[in-house]
Design a protein that fits this description.
This protein has about 300 residues and is an alpha+beta fold. It is about 25% helix and about 25% strand. The strands form 5 sheets. Strands 3, 4, 5, 8, 9, 14, 15, 16 and 17 form a 9-stranded antiparallel beta sheet that branches. It has a two-stranded antiparallel sheet with strand order 1-2. Helix 2 crosses helix 5 and helix 5 crosses helix 8.
Length: about 300
């Protein structure tokens, strides 16, 4: 059934910690998980040639799924960007993000508390910190990213790209010092604009608060442009939120393979059409939902509030 953000937030955890008393004195631990699942299916659209590296520099990361070889974009390709965006948001609001990514340190000798180092971004996306000794302090991510899998087959959506290295300042490929042409000529394969990926972001266990959920939505909504290669290829990946769905237990549709099996033939070729199909697929799997249109409007409102520092 259709619901509102207020109804969803009423079902989220009231706090991230709970008082635990099985000791000489009470102390705080992270909220214990309960039976709850929230899933955000997203569509990623390639809008400029994008390189997704494999071990073979001339190839792309791929996987055979639902009878076709498809392009596989591992979860960290998108999550890392959205996690960095989340840190920037907290810095803008002066609510966290004080340490550089992957550089958290807890000074045990000064009796520094982990809560003074970790922030909302750590709770949502996961993090870790080092102590003075060998101790590692981990924070389990509240949101779990699946890999993003292309809807269209890889053979149709990739293209050979001729690349040339070692080009001299005069524009030639001739090295006057060695008196020979550069051998740095190679071909890579890039993902074509128009390629659509499906991906799911899942939160399990009723362990996030309303503020943490808003932070996830805002990080997702603002991170619409990615560097798909170490080269500067511009903004080459666009994100569409296909609604928000939740219930008591996780359903199989959260897996990209099940999504692909549920899509009609011929496959949708536009992000709007794909979002519409995802709304139908997930709406049948979960008892409560918020439409893509309402979710996008809410994220847009969050972005406006961020600009006003509200």
């Amino acid at each position: 059934m259709d619901a509102t953000l207020d109804q969803l937030k009423a079902e989220l955890a009231p706090t991230m910690t709970v008082e635990y008393t099985l000791a000489e004195k009470p102390y705080m631990i992270p909220t214990l998980p309960q039976a709850q699942v929230i899933v955000l299916p997203v569509v990623r659209e390639v809008v400029a040639p994008m390189i997704i590296r494999n071990n073979d520099a001339e190839s792309i990361t791929d996987i055979v799924m639902v009878g076709e070889r498809r392009i596989r974009m591992i979860a960290s390709k998108t999550k890392s960007v959205e996690k960095r965006r989340g840190a920037m948001i907290l810095r803008a609001l002066q609510l966290g993000g004080y340490a550089a990514a992957n550089k958290h340190f807890i000074n045990e000798k000064a009796h520094q508390r982990p809560s003074s180092v970790f922030d909302l971004n750590a709770v949502v996306f996961g993090d870790s910190a080092k102590g003075n000794g060998k101790a590692i302090y981990p924070v389990h991510a509240a949101v779990l990213y699946s890999d993003a899998i292309s809807v269209q087959p890889a053979a149709v959506q990739t293209d050979a790209v001729f690349r040339q290295g070692g080009i001299m300042e005069d524009g030639s490929n001739y090295d006057p010092e060695r008196h020979q042409s550069s051998s740095n000529i190679f071909t890579t394969r890039a993902v074509k604009p128009g390629t659509l990926f499906v991906q799911t972001l899942v939160l399990i266990g009723r362990r996030v608060t309303a503020a943490a959920f808003d932070h996830l939505l805002l990080s997702l909504g603002l991170a619409g442009a990615y560097g798909g290669s170490t080269a500067t290829t511009g903004t080459n990946l666009r994100t569409y939120l296909a609604g928000i769905y939740w219930g008591t237990l996780e359903q199989a549709v959260n897996a990209p393979m099940v999504i692909l099996e549920s899509l009609p033939t011929p496959l949708p070729t536009s992000p709007v059409a794909l979002v519409t199909h995802l709304e139908t697929i997930f709406g049948q799997a979960y008892p409560r939902r918020i439409s893509a249109q309402k979710a996008e409007a809410y994220v847009s409102d969050l972005a406006t509030r961020l600009e006003k520092r509200d």
